[in-house]
Amino acid sequence: MRADRVFAYGATAGLIGDRILGDPRRGHPVAAFGRAAAAVEGALWRDDRARGLLHTLVCAGGAAAVGALGARAVRSRPAAARIALTAAATWAVVGGTSLGREARAIGGALAAGDAEVARERLPHLCGRDPQALDEQQMARAVVESVAENTSDAVVGALVWGAVAGVPGLLAFRAVNTLDAMVGHKSPRYLRYGWASARLDDLAGWPGARLTALAAVAAGPDRRGAVRAWRADAAAHPSPNAGPVEASFAGALGVRLGGTLSYGGRIEHRAVLNGERGRPVEVADIERAVKLSRRVTWLALGACVAVRSAVAMTKRGRA
């Protein structure tokens, strides 16, 4: 069976597995990678960019190597084995179902008027300081996290899976996890995490644009999504979160961005869709989760279509 079909069947099966099973409560492969990356950090850490680059190469390269060895092991086996490996890798690296569950749990607490429970759960979803947020700000934080993580936790992995198969799936999730671990601008990681943060920006670029395009196509307000993306995305400090959050804001008709707090540090970000959007309401959390799911399946379809088209072009030239 051709590699493009193996990816199509395997990635679809992996997404269905995530939809049914979600993330395992124990023994998650990404958690195991995180422990290994922390051990590497313990051995290598210095307040130095070169050490941080070595950390990134060891961890991300190791994940890609594991994927390559797995793909090589099933290369000569029946197509079912190759599909099963792709499905398992896809399920291991995507996190759409858990993202939706966490968002809905916080939304349910807010809808019930239990802000304290919402504050307890918010760190499971994003790095904001929950004690600094009121109910409306928590709802906004959840919608922003759903948008950004649709790209980081799902679509980006699918893009690199389409490009490089199982090694691409594992390497992308490794890069994204490293950025979450060491890529932030704390005193400890300002230099050491520089390489991980820059690599994550590069690796996430295509997935973020595909996520934004899919949000335009799948959202209830397509013109609003395009308008907000064009007008406001560049004002976001992240080159990848900007298009994603702006397109979600326009598609849902809400305002995102503004003042927020990370680790006691206050940031004043540009407002996305500020001219036409309204403040986020608790009900918008469910709308964002549903949009995220539509975006996921559209993105998978786009990845499969592009990979199949490339394969057909190569066969035509041969």
TrEMBL record:
Asked if the Swiss-Prot or TrEMBL record annotates the protein with the keyword Acetylation, the reply is: no
The record, for InterPro entries, names: Cobalamin_biosynth_CobD/CbiB (IPR004485)
| Pathway assigned in UniProt | Cofactor biosynthesis; adenosylcobalamin biosynthesis
Sorted UniProt keywords: Cell membrane, Cobalamin biosynthesis, Membrane, Transmembrane, Transmembrane helix
Q: Where in the cell is it found?
A: Cell membrane
Q: A Pfam family in this protein?
A: CobD_Cbib
Can the keyword Transmembrane be found in this entry's annotation?
yes
Q: How does it sit in the membrane?
A: Multi-pass membrane protein
Spell out the family assignment given in the record's similarity comment.
Belongs to the CobD/CbiB family.
The record's function comment reads: Converts cobyric acid to cobinamide by the addition of aminopropanol on the F carboxylic group.
- What is the protein's name according to its record? Cobalamin biosynthesis protein CobD
| Organism this protein belongs to | Streptomyces katrae
Q: Which gene encodes it?
A: cobD
